[in-house]
Amino acid sequence: MSNFGFKDTLKSSVDIVRTIGDYIRLQKIGGSARYRGLCPFHREKTPSFYVHADRQFYKCFGCGKGGDVFSFVMEIEGMGFYEALKLLAEKNGIEMPKQREDFDPESRKKASIQDLHEVAAKHFRDNLYASAGEPGRGYLNKRGIGQKLAEEFGLGFSDPSGGLTRLFEKQGVPGELMEQSGLCLKRNDGPGYFDRFRNRLMFPIWNESGKVIAFGGRTLGDDQPKYLNSPETPIYRKSHVLYNLHHAREGARKSGRMILVEGYMDVIGVHSAGVREVVASCGTSLTNLQVRSMKRHADRVIINFDPDNAGANAAERSIQILLEESLQIRVCSLPGGLDPDEYVKAHGAEAYLAELNRSPGYFHWLADRARSRFDMREAEGRMEAFRFLLPAIQKLPDKLERLAVVGDMAVHLRVEPGVVLDQFRKAAGDRNAAKAVQIAPQRHLPDLEKVLIRLLLHHPEALAGYCDTLLSMEGFPNLESHHILETALNMLAADGAVDFAVLQSKLSEADANLLAALFSTDTEDVEKMHGDPAAQLRACLEKLSYDQRERHRKDLRMQVREAEQRGDMPEAMRLMELERNLERAQKH
Known about the structure:
The two termini are 59 Å apart. It contains 27 helices and 16 strands. Helix 13 (309-324) links the parallel strand 15 (300-303) and strand 16 (328-331). It has 5 domains: 3-91, DNA Primase, Chain A; 105-236, DNA primase, catalytic core, N-terminal domain (DNA primase DNAg catalytic core, N-terminal domain); 240-359, Dna Topoisomerase Vi A Subunit, Chain: A, domain 2, CATH 3.40.1360; 366-430, Pheromone ER-1; 447-584. It is α+β, with helices and mostly antiparallel strands and 588 residues long. Helix 3 (69-77) packs across helix 4, helix 11 runs parallel beside helix 14 (340-347) and helix 16 (362-373) runs antiparallel to helix 17.
């Protein structure tokens, strides 16, 4: 079986609702086969993203993105088609064909780089428990991480001798591919390649579906930097990825929150305390894309960064990003100057959970920061504190909440409420409006065309003898959906049926979106096609015939006026007689 034949087999076996539901929270719409949620591809407050279980497609009416289960996985994971095909096959326990020659070069390259990361992850894990891995095991023992926890997070060790490059060379991996994977570097002093990671404790970084796409390595010697991360590659974009999200998302949905920490060891420590909904950014400042990944699974975030000045500054920046995405934010500051991993080990899981649950809202944490930074005894110092807090307040999405916080802040800072409000309004007027999402242009179908399309998909037998009649109608090319109808009617004439997925694959993107819109937003009872299909078809044909005659009448009237204007009365009389005959025919 070719890969493209396998695609159809796999698609018929995969539940698109369950697949997409692993990435976003979906709600069923009444008793229909449709589901709705917040779009994962753009910022929105009101759900405009629909998934249709029966027709196996998704559509967002905010940003316009839509397609089948493969296009969703490719978009959200940043994968090529082959990778998405392989991922879905593995998730659903279906054996994948081995040939890749049907796929484009970019997809083949990404798949090969993915394979190299799987090989590397196993190599590092094996190293950790071999004789060369003693430094790594010693470090983990010192940090209180046993073998079970190390295996759960796939921890490994990169030996100083550069064994990974030799392993790749033994397997015949081309040097260029080794370099593109980010796992190996080209030598400057001669031919050949060498390992990027050497003598480091290795942390695999997964994508949301649980595939290893990069690594972080902590030095166990004097090498710098202390933590070395993979560079960006065709399968890894730092700004898109959160460490441990594939483990955290189920816990986040149950608890309704995410715990955001700074580093790999913090994630492992918090996870060991039974808090599964914990993630970290991968060696970068928090990005909007990472925040949206969290928001797909939970509305609340607790920031629990290290208590030093760098951690506090990172928390400030993160609050701004989280507010832009309309998340509820709390900040946990652990007592004793301990980071999350250290606190769990010193005081236990129960004490850590208690600290999380008593975490204050972000505003109170920021206000404490402001009081420590500015002289609150002076009016000018209090105004400086206000200006420090203002950006965070402006990013609150709800206007009433913004005004309420401004009032609280005036009391908190002992500043005249009127002065605070004046400053707030001035700043609001000066700032640039947020960039709006480009809404996809909407096309609307007349009811007649909706009925015809539904008849073709639900009751093709009713139209079986009318394909040529419809296609030959003079006004057919003027229909908004004539490309959809023409394709479906030709399919019906050739195959005796119309398959929704096949129909979509034959249409332009604009028409495929139009078809998706028809089956995503209409009410359930209309979609079920109540009434006699044959009677509905007759009504459609009569309306099409009537519209055609009306166009003829208007055309004849225009020709009569033109004949009168040029003084050709015999021609005008002849055309008027044709118009009267057409009127008489319509009455009968």
